[in-house]
Write a structure and sequence with these properties.
By secondary structure, the protein is an alpha/beta fold. Helices cover 28% and strands 25% of the residues. The protein has eleven helices and 20 strands. Helix 3 links the parallel strand 3 and strand 4.
């Protein structure tokens, strides 16, 4: 009996061998460029998957919430950056965590330094977040006078230790090819070089940290950076494939969905697997068509190549409607499984709250462990 026979409802499958190859690739890249490798654990959010990074010498990590930091601290990780703007309502919990581990926080706008200092019992690392063009959060890299003032504020508080500048070039996720990714990466490096020259000359212990999977996967130049924090690379997904950051065979997760209805007259099948399982992230193809994932049939092992022309066309809460090419409308019989390659693996993993490995073993996920 193979493991697929036990799948009765939407199940997120994880291929450990692919994960390990992806980690080896990125850890090697960081090593070759002399960069600190502080991978972001927000994609997998799994203590067991996180432990695999130790095989590659990883000792420091990035997370995106205080809850996530506590979850991984409980698994023995004691050097953690929370790469999300400090939430003042969580300062008591942050202080408790900082008493136990080496913690780094992110200040993303003026005025937070004193509030953080007042709550800490011992020094905490402080990164200033830089907005290098994504317009999400962070200090405008083109307005150094504001950062100068914030650095002065940090220096006046004994419990704040300036760790450096941190940025996330999220614009690369919207690129359509490697050339666009590398162009955006070069723009970020140019902005970071100005910041380094202006602020870090007399601060030798401060670093510049960057972290977006497309650029970290594709770039060969990281001049001026000291640390990389990619996260999605551990699984990759169709969004990364579209940027050119990975190939389909590197995508390490599949959402296994039972086929529950067939409509050959319209070249469609319905699967048990909808928006609450995949999320509603979509990709737009060059012809303007949008879709919510590519699909592999069970007979190809679910981790085999996706079927050309087959894609998730529509989603509702529990339903997924798969559009099939006419010459393959019998590829997904009722009762079989469809393996969906997610558009955004981070969100799909968060929706599913756990994994089943290709060996049949279950793996944890933060959201499946009521860790509050």
């Amino acid at each position: 009996m193979d493991m697929f026979s036990s799948v009765t409802r939407p199940t997120l499958l994880l291929d450990r061998e692919r994960v390990m190859r992806n980690i080896a690739f990125m850890a090697g890249k960081a090593r070759d460029h002399g960069l600190i490798f502080r991978p972001h654990f927000k994609t997998h959010q799994s203590q067991e998957a996180g432990s695999w990074f130790r095989d590659f010498g990883v000792h420091c990590i990035t997370v995106s919430s205080v809850t996530m930091a506590a979850y991984f601290a409980s698994a023995g990780w004691n050097d953690i950056t929370i790469a999300f703007p400090v939430n003042p309502r969580e300062l008591d919990r942050i202080a408790e965590l900082n008493d136990r581990i080496r913690l780094h926080l992110l200040l993303s706008h003026p005025g937070m330094a004193e509030a953080v200092h007042r709550k800490m019992n011992r020094p905490v690392g402080i990164f200033l977040e830089l907005d290098t063009g994504d317009r999400r959060s962070g200090f405008d890299a083109g307005k150094p006078e504001i950062m100068e003032k914030e650095l002065k504020n940090i220096s006046q508080h004994a419990h704040l230790r300036f760790a450096g500048f941190l940025t996330h070039a999220g614009r690369t996720y919207r690129a359509r090819n490697p050339e666009e990714v590398l162009s955006l990466h070069s723009e970020s490096l140019a902005r970071l070089a100005i910041i380094r020259e202006k602020f870090l000359g007399n601060r030798p212990e401060a670093i510049i940290s960057l972290g977006d999977t497309p650029a970290c996967s594709l770039a060969k130049d990281f001049a001026g950076a000291d640390e990389m924090r990619p996260g999605n690379f551990v699984f990759y997904d169709l969004m990364q494939e579209q940027t050119g950051a990975c190939r389909e065979e590197q995508v390490a997760v599949r959402l296994a969905c039972p086929v529950v209805a067939r409509y050959p007259e319209r070249n469609e099948v319905v699967v048990y697997g909808g928006a609450i399982h995949l999320s509603k992230e979509y990709l737009a193809e060059e012809n303007g068509r949008i879709h919510y994932g590519k699909v592999s049939p069970e007979k190809q092992g679910l981790f085999g190549p996706s079927l050309p022309g087959a894609f998730v066309d529509r989603l509702s809460q529990e339903h997924g409607i798969i559009r099939l090419p006419e010459n393959h409308r019998d590829a997904f019989p009722v009762g079989s499984l469809a393996g969906i390659l997610p558009v955004h693996s981070c969100l799909t993993a968060d929706c599913m709250k756990g994994y089943v490995g290709t060996d049949g073993r279950r793996l944890d996920h933060l959201q499946g462990n009521v860790y509050i």
